[in-house]
Structure formats: structure tokens, C-alpha cells
Amino acid sequence: STPTPPSQILSGLVGSEMCIRDRGKTMDLGLTGKVAVVTGGSKGIGEAITRTLLAEGAHVANVNRSSTEGEALEAEYAAKGQRCKFIQGDLIQMDACELAVKTTLAEFGTIDILINNAGVNDGVSLTDGPKAFLSSLQNNLIHYYAMAHYALEALKKSQGAIINISSKVATTGQGGTSGYAASKGGINGMTREWALDLAADNIRVNTVVPAETWTPLYAELIDQSSDPAAARKQIEDIIPLGSRFTSSQEIADMVVFLASQRSLHTTGQIHYVDGGYTHLDRKYTSRSNNVDLSK
Ligand code: NAP
After folding, report:
1. How far is the C-alpha of 72 from the C-alpha of 61, rounded, in Å?
2. Residue 8 pLDDT more than 80?
3. Which pTM was predicted?
């Protein structure tokens, strides 16, 4: 029989047979005209996600606490005829989460994609007490739930996708950051729970996990150390793939792929975009740092 041309790919199961459809050579993500809500979409990883979605032709509602960068992004894209609606709000307020969803629906009429990204490693430790711990959960966890809750009806209508941004701290711990670790662990748990809860509605839910991702804020923190170059190298030396930070763009690319029509059968998964930082054998990086492993 004639071999299947490379341009033909498997597109799904029909009965017991594979259905083969010619999609051509490109990988169109199918995001043109889709509406995405991005929390914390003005800076760092969130900004990269916002810009990548816009580059793929999606519209973005960017919910952010500070306004300068969000308003500048809105103006920058408006000048190009694209919609990047800035919605000011502090997500620790549940009213702000509800208002963000309502404002998005008033502006765009639908929500196809929810990206829960805003968060901060606020260093609330075991010694800081329950009040501080609760506030860390508000900074990092509760608004992920609230945004999904308020966006749920719209996502059911659009059969949309949720992508959560977690952290390697949920898996590795870090020391001195109970609230953040609990929040990110909670996000991983909710990802699996929501994937099942929402499978019948054809809503997909995935999480992307950064470990050491280079952002302006990270650069500022490194610059505060007495020897920034050495501080940066110390971190890079323990990242197996390429001995370098992950870029915000690399996180955004995975997020946008998971939001797209090209990942329609991926749900409930926790994707580590970290150059192997979280899971790979420490011996590998120790060897490349000339640590004596003979003992
Ligand atoms: P970032 O540079 O500090 O950006 C975070 C953005 O979220 C900022 O624009 C911030 O707004 C916004 N934000 C934070 N809390 C908010 C709130 N309560 N209400 C509204 N907006 C809020 O941080 P990032 O490094 O890009 O981190 C993004 C996500 O990745 C976070 O969930 C973080 O935990 C995760 N992560 C990052 C790394 C990394 O290496 N960078 C590693 C692991 C996980 P403001 O303008 O008001 O500050």
C-alpha cells in the first residue's frame, strides 16, 4: 500500500479506526480571535504569555494590580489594531476576580482561555503564623480558584481551556516558604481535580511549572547580591539542559500550545518547563561542576 505522506497526520479516532486528515505543513495553533484572560499579564512570565497570545491572533484581557505596564501594553497593541484590554484589580479581593471576568465578557462576549499566572514567592514560613499563611494563600492560590469559578459558565459555553502556572517549589520545597509551597501544591492538585470535573464539558485543564525562569524581577534580585555574575552562575550550574535559566518565552510557548487547538487531548497534566531542574539526577550537574563523586 502507498505510505502515508508526512503532511498527513492522525487527527482523532472515529469508531475503531484512525481518521487521517491532511493539515498541510504548518502547525496553526487556531488561536485567531480567541479570547484569553491572563492574570498578572503585565510583567515577567505573564507578559510573555500575553505577547505570545497576541502574536497568535488572540485577544487578551490582562488582569493586573499595578497599571502602568498594563496600560502601556493596551496602547501598544491598540496602535497595531489588536486588543489587549487592561483590567486593573488586586486578585486577593474576590470582588476584583468577579469584576475581571464580568469586564472581559462585557468587552469580548466570551472567554476561551483562562491563564492563572499571578503569584509571588512571599516567603511566609512556619514561624510566621496562621494569619501570614492565610495571606500567602490569598496571594497565590485562592484567586486561581476564584477566577476559574467566575469564568466557569463562559468556559463551558466555549469549551475552553485553563492553564495554571505553578512552581517547582511544590515538588522540591525551598525552605522558609510554607504559604507559597502549599499554594503551588494546591494548584497542582486542583489541576487534576478540575480536569476530571470539567472533562464532560470538554474543558481542558493543565499546569505549567517553571523552576528558574529569567524575568526582570529575577534580574533585579540577582543584581542585589554582592557578586551578581557569580550568583547567576551558581543557579545556572544546577540546571542540566544548557546550564541556563529558562526564558519567559519558553514558558509562554508551552502555555500557548496547551491553550491551542493542537493539544485537544491533553488534560490534567503538570508540565515542567525547567531544563530538567526539578527531576533529573543531581549527579549530572555535580559532575559538570567537577564535584568529587567518588565517595
Ligand atoms: P513577576 O515578574 O513578579 O510578575 C507577576 C505579575 O503578576 C506582576 O505583573 C504582578 O503585578 C502580578 N500580580 C501579582 N500578584 C497580583 C495580584 N494579587 N493581583 C493582580 N496582579 C498580581 O512574576 P513571574 O516571575 O513572572 O511569576 C509569574 C508566575 O510564575 C507566578 O505564579 C510565579 O509563582 C511563577 N513562577 C515563577 C518562577 C520564576 O523563576 N520567575 C519560578 C517558579 C514559578 P504588579 O505589577 O502589581 O507587581
Report:
1. 14
2. no
3. 0.92
